[in-house]
Specification:
Largest sheet: 8 strands, parallel
Domain 6-hydroxymethylpterin diphosphokinase MptE-like: 166-315
Number of strands: 17
Oligomer: single chain
Distance between the termini: 65 Å
Shape: elongated
Number of helices: 13
Order of helices and strands: EEEHEHEHEEHHEHEHEHEHEHEHEEEHEH
Structural class: alpha/beta
Strand order of the largest sheet: 13-12-11-10-9-8-14-17
Protein name: 6-hydroxymethylpterin diphosphokinase MptE-like domain-containing protein
Radius of gyration: 24 Å
Mean pLDDT: 90
Low-confidence stretches: 330-334
Strand content: 15-25%
InterPro entries: MptE-like
Pfam families: MptE-like
Length: 408
Amino acid sequence: MQWLVERAKNEEPTLQLNGVFIYSKYRPKEDALRWINAEINAEAKSYLLIGLGLGYHLKALISQSKNKPVTVYYFDKHEYELFLAHNSDQWWKKENVHIVHDLSQKELHDNVQILLPNVWIKGIGQSHPLFSILEVIKINQLSLKRDSSKMEENFYYNTILDDDIIQVKKQSRIGCLVAAGPSLNDTILWLKKYQHQVDIYVVGAALKKLLANGIIPKGAILSDANDETILQFQDLNFEGELYYLCTANYKSVALHCSKRYILFQQGYKLAEEEAEKRNAPLIETGGSVGTTAFSLLEYLGYDTVVLFGQDLGFPGNQTHAIDSTSGRNASNDTFLRNIEANDESNIHTTAMFQVFWYWYDQKMEKTKVKVFNTAIKGAKIKNVPLIREEKFAELIAKKMNNYLEEEG
């Protein structure tokens, strides 16, 4: 990591990391204070600041934190030495302030606010071991900030519907989770052939594609807060079940006139409070409708789940399946990354897809569900083997035989 201290226009020291300015070139201290004032959540019980640098964000945070615990993470020894060299008065020496190079679970508890200036992610670069996890945190923060008012509005309208909550039960079939990735163009034929022997759950973006191919899912899942999802449920004659997050677009929810189930997500305060009132479970969302759907199937009691169209990457330019409501051309994307596919080739992925892939990779280490992936050119997920149609048929037959034996 290459650190460079130079003078800003107002003569204050400013800092570059690998050619990226961590602070303003004009008024670094003032701009750091402005950023903290814009980001700080006064209701947080403690704060975790990522990036020590010359200490400008830390000093601003301490001034606004009202003596709550403050932890700041620094990336390497040289950074810490630069901080000490430019702060000889030791203003940070307070009981509530901790400067660390290793993070433990106690710094990452539910009531901590993580403060992460985006410049640190750019500065450390994609090769840094913390890049992916910091990018996940930042993307989720920006998404929540962007949609917060819409989520509250949806929460109000959805919670007055008095729809049922989900219940755990033993499932006799395989659960098929259908997303809108490009591999669905090929594997949709499997679903058409075996639809009466499996339980199919589909994300909203792929619902119309399944119905157009004569496939009737058991359930559809809706998680997005925004009005764009209305198109997914307009002009449909879908009589299956709808599972929706309490913050999902309420207009889209209202379009579904058959059975509905409301879901409450971990990490959203209003949802957690309402779930406690209703004695309802909390669902992990992972940031996408596909990851939310997996958490749902896991909770519903499926011990075997097969992923369709959950590609999280693409070999060409098309990010989604033909006729899905989410597809776009990625040929002009500047920041495409490469990732290993299930057939061991390299495919493209995006920052958002990589967030969801990371969630799956972590989830697969602890879930008891047996998971298979049908996307040959999809991103390879830890502990999730590729499955071909012949093996898929065998899996269905084995599951049915086991069920019949148990029933005697």
